[in-house]
From TrEMBL, chain B:
Name by which UniProt lists this protein: Elongation factor P
Database matches in SUPFAM superfamilies: Nucleic acid-binding proteins, Translation proteins SH3-like domain
HAMAP family attached to this UniProt entry: EF_P
Domain spans labelled Elongation factor P C-terminal: 131-186
Gene transcribed to yield this protein: efp
NCBIfam families: efp (TIGR00038), PRK00529.1 (NF001810)
Amino acid sequence: MNTWQKLKQQPKLFKRYFVREQIFAAIREFFAKKQTHEVEVPLLAPSLPAESYLEVFETTLLDRHRHPKRAFLTTSPEMFLKKLLVAGIGSCFSLTKSFRNTEGESNTHNPEFTILEWYEVGKDYKDVMKTTEELVCYIYDKLFSSSVARSDHNRHTELVSASKKSSHIRSNSKLILNYQNQVIDLTPPWERISMTEAFAKYARIDLEKLLDLKSLQTVVRKKGYQVGEGETWEELFHQIYLNEVVPQFSKNRPTIIFDYPVQLAALAAKPKASDPRFVERFEVYIGGIELADCCTELTQVDEQQKRFQKELTLRKKLGKKDYPVDWEFIEALKLGLPSCAGIALGVDRLVMLMTNVSRIQDTLFFPSEEMWQGLS
Amino acid sequence: MSKITTADFQKGMFIEFKSEPHQIVEFQHVNPGKGSAFVRTKVKSLKTGHVQEFTYKSGESAEQLDINTREMQYLYKEVEKYVFMDNESYEQFTVLAQVLGHYADFLKENEIYQLLVYGEDVIGVRFPKKVRLKVIETEDAVKGNTVSGATKEAKLETGVMIQVPLFIKVGDVVGVDPELAEYVDRVNQ
């Protein structure tokens, strides 16, 4: 039975699905209060940012003579928002769909998903950590602000303060989320741990001494993992990170993991001025779910160009679909991207957390898995 | 053993993990922060039943265990154990209740089943999608109760209780899905 049919049988299930629209409304309200512009970005584009690991959807655009042009579903709103930052829009956000292929068979991926991406001009990743805490708490408060809903959601706490309507976070009340039998305290500040600290604490290794491929290979092998030929530093790093570090993050508080090795700078994270072996990037984990990915943005054109090339070379090596890269973005950077930090947050995953479901599919009226089921 | 990669993974597959036989309980695609792809896998030890998680690199290799499927006749039940016999070799196998799980509720004496054997041990059973079992106890249908989809309890010859439609009578043979423990149809004799 598909979701809409289940809903017809059990109308009370609608309540859970409606949380999504409340979250959308809360996000827009939050940014409106900060005078941050909302940008509607294209979902169909002639080119994409150079990203090594993402698999893409391609289609064909026809003009009136039916001449075909390659067209792609966008993998994130990043390039559009950054061009507008160059144009001078100031802090801005987009709440939109993005598309990534070959990410099936997962409880936390849907090929098309809702992404919230925002940029704060004149700020860095540490400021965005605070905004992220503020936003998640704002949404929590909107969803559970009536005392009834709150006490219902917070069977484990004594909170419930007197004022019902106030939309800011009360200092005397804890924000408790019950998620999949875990009691998570969302009250800021969240736990902040650097990549180096986390590797020392959970995997008992000194990351700073493993920044070259050879040293890391030795340690990974010693720990009993497979090390294949031609495996990159990034792959070896993630073997330890995913098996030993992430599973040990606090179950009862959100974790902000920050200061990534430069090998994981991705497209646009800015190196730390104090130690360029690391970049200003963080991710947020709540209840075991990777929720958001942020960095202080790289503003140097030459370095950005190098990273584009590097990503493209890696893409080729990995045999991923070849696509035209958005070089106009590099042109834009030449005009000067204001110093800023940006973050992408998986909205569907936030809905999972707020509705206490373990599968992204259970937050969607029409999950892809369901629509394609049985089709070969 | 045969070499496979994560691309071949399937739920229920038997693989070697840390030099011990394990069964794949579930697996998930993960890709950390726009990084390369990984497969988060839950495996259950065939020896201890202990479930643990391991994240493989996508495309990483693993050893699939050589599992033999052997037809065996179910003989009788001991405490928390079930005894089967291979009718070709007359070898007897004792199978722990935890290996059979709830399928044990549908075992009928003297019937032939396909058992999965690894080395000397039975590690699982491949049950048919539908089993036929006789109803030995159920209330008579109440006349006038025509609510569609209404069900009642029935005890089958193996002792298990399932929900059946109201028209089912004692002595009827019903088809049951053993995986879901659900009534499928009435089998005409």
